[in-house]
């Protein structure tokens, strides 16, 4: 291999690593915003409309899961976070059908209740679906604005970005 090609590959990898960290910082910010908005919807529930207090917390929890998956796997296709997020949220909701003293003890704590929920509600599945669909749409729209060419079936989103060439 020529020295020139080796240097070009090293520069490309260096740019790719820097770009991944920037993308991860954006997704970390999105996770933190979703957490703050979700907690805010509980803390300020007396000041918010009933529709917001009833539905936004679960939808924002699903947003957090979606963006968390994007944080873990930024160069995977968006559909991995879409379907993975739905699968995770649905699994947590269906796990609430299992009622045992040991898991109910965990659910009785603040963190356990926020992560695992308290009891199964079918409407939560709709809230999760809406939250993840909104997150995916925002993600897709932002990537289009930045110029990252992605589609649901495109697994090479970062490799096609202008700043990596």
From TrEMBL:
<dbReference type="InterPro" id="IPR021257">
    <property type="entry name" value="DUF2809"/>
</dbReference>
<keyword id="KW-0472">Membrane</keyword>
<dbReference type="Pfam" id="PF10990">
    <property type="entry name" value="DUF2809"/>
</dbReference>
<keyword id="KW-0812">Transmembrane</keyword>
<feature type="transmembrane region" description="Helical">
    <location>
        <begin position="80"/>
        <end position="98"/>
    </location>
</feature>
<feature type="transmembrane region" description="Helical">
    <location>
        <begin position="52"/>
        <end position="73"/>
    </location>
</feature>
<feature type="transmembrane region" description="Helical">
    <location>
        <begin position="21"/>
        <end position="40"/>
    </location>
</feature>
<keyword id="KW-1133">Transmembrane helix</keyword>
<protein>
    <submittedName>
        <fullName>DUF2809 domain-containing protein</fullName>
    </submittedName>
</protein>
């Amino acid at each position: 291999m020529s020295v020139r090609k080796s240097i070009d590959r090293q520069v490309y990898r260096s740019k790719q690593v820097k770009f991944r960290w920037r993308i991860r910082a954006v997704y970390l910010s999105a996770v933190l915003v979703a957490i703050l908005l979700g907690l805010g919807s509980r803390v300020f529930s007396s000041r918010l409309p009933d529709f917001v207090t009833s539905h936004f917390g679960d939808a924002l929890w699903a947003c957090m899961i979606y963006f968390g998956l994007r944080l873990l796997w930024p160069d995977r296709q968006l559909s991995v976070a879409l379907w993975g997020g739905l699968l995770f949220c649905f699994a947590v909701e269906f796990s609430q059908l299992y009622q045992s003293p040991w898991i109910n003890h965990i659910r009785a704590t603040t963190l356990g209740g926020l992560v695992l929920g308290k009891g199964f509600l079918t409407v939560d599945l709709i809230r999760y679906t809406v939250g993840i669909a909104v997150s995916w749409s925002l993600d897709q729209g932002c990537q289009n604005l930045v110029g990252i060419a992605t589609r649901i079936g495109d697994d090479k989103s970062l490799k096609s970005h202008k700043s990596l060439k």
